[in-house]
Amino acid sequence: MKTNNNFIPWITTKVKAALKKKARLYQKAKTSNNWSNYRKFQNECKNKFRQARWEHVKKSSTKVSRQTTPNLSGHMLSRRSKITSALHLYAQMVT
Question: What is the rounded distance in angstroms from the CA atom of residue 12 to the CA atom of residue 56?
Answer without folding.
Answer: 10
